[in-house]
């Protein structure tokens, strides 16, 4: 019996429900291989995820990676293998180059383009991986269309980047008065601009709201220092990283709006899954999940790096609190149509069944 083999750098907790869905759909016909730490040390594997551990060996200041382990036994098997679409994983090139002449199915999964976009120098290297692969799995429908427009001969599939199953989505039934906070969920790294968020929030001190920051990272010390220096301890809550679904759902339920002060990532579909609209920095190099944002529907945009515009938009959101609160069910239901782990797993399941 053929199997679906997924080889990842890490298996982080936010992927646990997706991997669980693949196990549910495929049973023993699915195997996951993953290392312990990502290129950024703050991203690491969740010990609770069922996986076969392999060794990540980084070099050139963690710019490149070679993976060692039992996954090499899969190299010449007829199983369907899915690897990361990341040219910096040197061992992945070996899988692509050696399996292609043998007609063995190897797919690449990840961002269609580098962070600098489709016209960057490294985009050509990423495209070379796609040419060796049997197909590419993108994180968004928009990136699938962009790739097909540029490279119509490639086989492109889309697995919408999701966090939760359909039955988990939707917010808690709280009163409008209880939804009074602003929430940020994500890694506390410079590109996410959490310090900008705290500084801008400081200007909203007279507004009846608190700021909840969920996450950890190198910017945490700067934020802690700012909060202490300006006596914001009663207004800014830093929870650290939280992977408990019920706790996150409760925090979102008490928040009127979520915020992405830097580039948008997976937290946008998380916010929409709970029915909470997002305030987003407009001119950023956003991740593919930005396609979920519909201005004036589930998202509001502010001028990048502009604290005054940020504050103005927050004040407008609270001024029309009833309008945004009453959109919650609609936002969650729309997210259910496109961003569930069931839909995300479906292309992977089809790849295996088509190869049987």
Walk me through this protein's architecture:
Helices cover 33% and strands 19% of the residues. The strands form 3 sheets. A 7-stranded parallel beta sheet has the order 3-2-1-6-7-8-9, with helices on both faces. Strands 12-11-10-13-14-15 form a 6-stranded parallel beta sheet, with helices on both faces. Helix 1 crosses helix 12, helix 5 packs parallel to helix 6 and helix 5 crosses helix 9. It folds into 2 domains: 174 residues, Glycogen Phosphorylase B (Rossmann fold, 3-Layer(aba) Sandwich); 173 residues, Rossmann fold. It is built from 12 helices and 15 strands. Strand 11, helix 6 and strand 12 form a beta-alpha-beta unit. The longest helix has 14 residues. With 356 residues, it is of the alpha/beta class.
What topology does this entry show?
Elements: E1 4-8, H1 16-26, E2 30-34, E3 52-53, E4 55-59, E5 64-68, E6 80-84, H2 90-99, E7 106-109, H3 123-132, E8 135-138, H4 141-150, E9 156-158, E10 181-185, H5 194-202, E11 211-214, H6 220-229, E12 236-240, H7 245-253, E13 255-260, H8 267-273, E14 278-281, E15 299-302, H9 307-319, H10 321-325, H11 328-338, H12 341-354
Parallel strand pairs: 1-2, 1-6, 2-3, 6-7, 7-8, 8-9, 10-11, 10-13, 11-12, 13-14, 14-15
Antiparallel strand pairs: 4-5
Helix pairs in contact: 1-12, 5-6, 5-9
Distance between the termini: 8 Å
- CATH domain class name of the largest domain: Alpha Beta
> What string gives the helices and strands in order?
EHEEEEEHEHEHEEHEHEHEHEEHHHH
CATH H-tier superfamily of the largest domain: Glycogen Phosphorylase B
Residue runs with pLDDT of under 50 for 5 or more positions: none
Shape: globular
* Structural classification: alpha/beta
Count of helical segments?
12
* CATH architecture identity of the largest domain: 3-Layer(aba) Sandwich
Average pLDDT taken over every residue: 95
Query: What amount of the residues lies in strands?
Result: 15-25%
In which order are the strands of the major sheet placed?
A: 3-2-1-6-7-8-9
Counted beta strands: 15
Give me the CATH fold name of the largest domain.
Rossmann fold
